[in-house]
Amino acid sequence: MRRYAQRTAGMTASEIRALFSVASRPEVVSLAGGMPYLAALPLDSLSAEVGQLIAEDGLVALQYGSAQGIPELREQICEIMALEGISAHPDDVVVTVGSQMALDMVTRIFCDPGDVVLAEGPSYVGALGSFAAYQAQVVHVTMDEHGLVPSALREALASVAASGRRVKFLYTIPNFQNPAGVTLAVERRAEVLEICAQHGVLVVEDNPYGLLGFDGQIYPALRSLDADNVVYLGSFSKTFASGLRVGWVLAPHAVREKLVLAAESATLCPPTMNQLMVSRYLATHDWKGQIKTYREAYRERRDAMLSALDQYMPAGCTWTKPDGGFYVWVTVPEGVNTKAMLPRAVTQRVAYASGTGFYADRLGSRQMRLSYCYPTPERIREGVRRLANVLGDELEL
Ligand code: PMP
């Protein structure tokens, strides 16, 4: 008798999480994880805020709440989304335990085993994990430096149709993509939406980094261009605090109803305390100023990484040049396998995320993702220098 459900076969350890314990040793410069730079937060005033929250509103904060999330936070979320041109009603927002829960719920309500999800190649590890857990098949769509390539999207749709399978949705991270660091060109956005609408394919827009453009630029959300066919995922993880695990999903009415049912069965309700904490923070703190502080810190770190890459990397390596977000995507010369090289890099006290984890089909062995969000600029330079040495040795072998 088989003990575990078949779907557990698709649940594999993320290469990045498996690396966490080694990569977090102090002597290792970790360019592997995507941990936000929380030291930029005003911890003293947040601590006072938590105390006040319990004192003034403790019996609500510590109680169960509605599965959809507390109404005042959903209103504030609508104001945030308005910055990206989205006009939404709080009734269509569901608060989630981070975007990760939204990814899980969206996959749960749409995908039967064998259904196809289209996703950029490479794509976000956590999303690929959710798709695998529900036995959906991922078909990757090519990107270039301007994001998803519309003609490649058309081809992917045609080839899936020819194979007799069903595409349930396109999963896309249009802004400062994880892991590639590229942004979907504004001119392509309407075209991508049009292709999906023509084929009856829903778009799932995952946008945790949209407000972290280094020049303060904010791109129009796909949801702002098509309210009927886009499910939008947002998160406070990168703009405020990842450990609070507060995110949200904005969905067309009918989809939202299914999501609330899925949320009820998963968690009963998102944590009231954390939602109230976020809501009070938005009401009492200069949250836009905080996002600016984050942006400036990440910009400095991005600059440190790009200049170190220029200075140290061996000939034949190429990389993307993000103008927001957390990540640079590096391609190394033929003959180097970034997954095989990783243990040697860790011995040389530098860690990165090998490209293979970002593809469902294990492509990516000549790529790696470098994150500049967490280490200081000095550590980033040192990490890139060490990485370049490892690569140099590798190329000489
Ligand atoms: N989507 C993407 C593209 C991400 O990079 C991340 C976090 N690394 C998430 C979703 C998950 O965010 P959350 O902390 O809100 O679950």
UniProtKB/TrEMBL annotation:
Needed cofactors: pyridoxal 5'-phosphate
Keyword DNA-binding annotated: yes
Complex formation: Homodimer.
Protein name: DNA-binding transcriptional regulator, MocR family, contains an aminotransferase domain
CDD domains per record: AAT_like
SUPFAM superfamilies listed in its UniProt record: PLP-dependent transferases
GO biological process terms, semicolon-separated: alpha-amino acid metabolic process
InterPro entries: Aminotransferase_I/II_large, Class-I_PLP-dep_aminotransf, PyrdxlP-dep_Trfase, PyrdxlP-dep_Trfase_major, PyrdxlP-dep_Trfase_small
Domain called Aminotransferase class I/classII large: residue spans: 55-387
MF GO annotations: DNA binding; pyridoxal phosphate binding; transaminase activity
The family this protein is said to belong to: Belongs to the class-I pyridoxal-phosphate-dependent aminotransferase family.
Endpoints of the signal sequence: none
Organism from which the protein derives: Goodfellowiella coeruleoviolacea
Keyword Transferase: yes
Keywords: Aminotransferase, DNA-binding, Pyridoxal phosphate, Transferase
Stored Gene3D superfamilies: Aspartate Aminotransferase, domain 1, Type I PLP-dependent aspartate aminotransferase-like (Major domain)
Pfam families from the UniProt entry: Aminotran_1_2
